[in-house]
Automatic annotation (TrEMBL):
SUPFAM superfamilies: Glycoside hydrolase/deacetylase (SSF88713). It comes from Acinetobacter amyesii. It comes from the Bacteria. Keywords: Hydrolase, Metal-binding. One of its GO terms (molecular function) is metal ion binding. The keyword Cell wall biogenesis/degradation does not apply. This is Polysaccharide deacetylase. GO terms for cellular component: membrane.
Length: 294
């Protein structure tokens, strides 16, 4: 019996995962900002998971929003940089010069916070629509001792958050319950998709980083999300550890550059039938239908 169990264990590839949270909230525009922020921190504390938050100044606003980010550092999570203006580097009208200025501006404001670290996450995961811009920013980051806060598993929590806010407003508990299951299924599905893509391209499975946001749906459901991943054999690791994976130091060879690092490598290698990188709403219709939400 023992022997059988041992063999079964060997055949299961260990999959590890870190959580990262983008943007942050501005209490001036979101009355629930403080509560959402605190609830997410509580879930992480209860599950003993160390994460990283990537605030963008335009998303957090002034003093109050910065206070919420400070709480992440005080709870031993890392604080990274997600720029001041949250610009899309793939847009024609965004120059490398302005873009870099926006990274510097955020650095000036955020570096006073505890556990601030020079790790940069590109807004929208866009790393440049031409080689000059792409390489100018890579070069600036390297020269300023910045690492890239890459993502291996891209997901659409922003889409499910919109549904969550609608159903919460309607006080529709049945729909909220269904949505929780749909959201968990969505995240597990994305994780499996990118892990399989990793096995096709960079085998073995890397130390994954999942992209989430500081938002209401994660405040409500994160505990159940974490449990569901654990039940499916995923182990949670700290974001600091995951981002040590050499996978995240690689520069994209593609134009346009960016997206999930695994997707980007698959694209460079010429893998066919890759899904469109933008994690868009049409992908979610079937999942919503399966959970009785369409
Ligand atoms: Zn963002």
């Amino acid at each position: 019996m023992f022997f059988v169990l041992l063999c079964a264990n060997i055949t299961v590839q260990a999959k590890s995962l870190a959580l990262s949270f983008d943007d942050g909230l501005n209490p001036a525009f979101n009355v629930q900002a403080e509560q959402i922020n605190a609830q997410i921190l509580k879930h992480l504390h209860d599950q003993q998971i160390k994460s990283i938050v990537f605030p963008s100044l335009i998303k957090i606003g002034d003093y109050q929003g910065k206070q919420l980010i400070q709480a992440w550092g005080q709870s031993s999570h890392l604080i990274g940089n997600h720029s001041a203006l949250h610009q899309n580097l793939n847009k024609e009208n965004v120059s490398a010069k302005d873009y870099i200025k926006s990274i510097e501006q955020a650095d000036t404001v955020l570096k006073t916070l505890p556990n601030y670290t020079r790790i940069y996450r590109y807004p929208f995961l866009k790393e440049g629509n031409n080689a000059e811009k792409r390489d100018a920013v890579y070069q600036w980051l390297a020269q300023h001792q910045y690492r890239i806060g890459g993502v291996s598993i891209d997901a659409s929590d922003w889409f499910y958050n919109q549904k969550y806010l609608d159903y919460a407003k309607q006080q529709d508990q049945d729909k909220l319950d269904r949505l929780k299951q749909a959201y968990i299924a969505h995240l597990l599905h994305r994780a499996d998709y990118y892990d399989q893509l990793a096995q096709l391209t960079i085998n073995p499975s890397p130390q994954h980083v999942l992209l989430l946001h500081v938002n209401a749906i994660n405040a409500a459901f994160l505990k159940d999300v974490i449990t569901a991943f654990q039940q499916r054999g995923w182990t949670f690791i700290s974001a600091a550890d995951a981002l040590q994976d050499p996978l995240y130091t690689q520069h994209s060879q593609n134009i346009p550059a960016g997206e999930s690092v695994i997707w980007s490598i698959a694209k460079t290698k010429g893998l066919e039938h890759l899904r469109y990188p933008a994690e868009d709403a049409p992908y979610e219709i079937d999942n919503l239908k399966q959970h009785g939400l369409q």
